Amino acid sequence: MGREIKRVPLDFKWPLGKVWGGFVRPPQHEPVTCDVCHGNGFNPKTRQLHDDWYDHAGFGSRWHYDYRTGIDGNPAEGPPWKVFGESRSWMYQLEQDEVDNLVAEGRLMEWTHTWTQGTGWKVDPSKPHPTADQINRAMQYGFGHDSINHNICVRFRAKKLGFYGLCPRCDGEGYMFETPSQKAAYEAWEETPIPEGPGYQMWETVSEGSPRSPVFDTPTRLAAWLVRNHASSLAEETASFAQWMAFIDAGWAPSGFVSGGKVQTGVTVALSVDRPVFNVFEVDGEPEQRVVRTHLNAGYRLSYDYETFIPKIERFEAVFP
């Protein structure tokens, strides 16, 4: 997911911000959610166990939570919070065999493995096998269990209790087709690719994919438009002309990432990659075709003429940390 440069025809017209129609299956071909299992594909008892993992249905009626009181007498800002009433939630009440099963399924790796650069996750014999008490407590303070852990635990506990099974109406699919012809059309559908051409256009790929800029005949004109219109590189963040040019040259950038506790956009760090960035710049007032390699810590000063679409790059002495 992120931002991507598409090479499209110069006369390509598709509304900005609208998902490309060729990426979306026609709604009349889409199946309907199963009216028995409500989309999760389980039989009634397993579905109830699935829903009880969070017990959202009982929140506000059978149970609620409130902040614990800290040592200073003020409400604690973080979990675990105190639960009042009767909650069926069991995501923080796993039993030891369920924790053992999560480990066997390749989950809870931070408790059993160590990650190193170049080798990735490796089993760490020095780490003791996690206990249910450790996992139940730790998950209340961290990000908690994800949906993969959720489904693994539901299947394991349902089988242990002897009632695991799939929905008899949809055979575990979670959805149904109204007619055989609808199913055939659904399975036969294929994406229609975006037409190709010499133009440059920025797209977002967070959704199925939609254009975020008009089509331009050169990278510099596209970068100029992105600067003038404060185009989004992530949420409300934008980028400089140099950063947009580096991104256009790269062709793609992720939405963002966290480094050193700081959120950065993929576009703004594209300039840190050592690659050709500009192929047109001004020398003695005249456009000249060249390749300039640049870097975040390189000593270049950039000015830009929005009328001629020609960036002017000057080398200067600078000291960077």
Which terms would index this structure?
321 residues, alpha+beta, 2 domains, four-stranded antiparallel beta sheet, two-stranded antiparallel ribbon, 8 helices, 16 strands, 24% helix, globular, disordered C terminus
Walkthrough of the structure:
The protein has 321 residues and is an alpha+beta fold. The chain folds into 2 domains: 2-23 and 194-315, no CATH class; 43-54 and 89-161, no CATH class. It is built from 8 helices and 16 strands. It has helices at 44-52, 96-104, 109-112, 132-141, 147-161, 180-188, 219-228, 241-250, and strands at 2-8, 32-33, 63-66, 82-85, 113-116, 120-123, 175-176, 199-204, 210-211, 252-254, 256-259, 262-265, 276-283, 286-293, 300-305, 310-315. Strands 9-8-1-10 form a 4-stranded antiparallel beta sheet. A two-stranded antiparallel sheet has the order 2-7. It has a two-stranded antiparallel ribbon with strand order 3-4. A hairpin with a 2-residue loop joins strand 11 (256-259) and strand 12 (262-265). Helix 1 (44-52) crosses helix 5 and helix 7 crosses helix 8 (241-250). The longest helix has 15 residues, at 147-161.
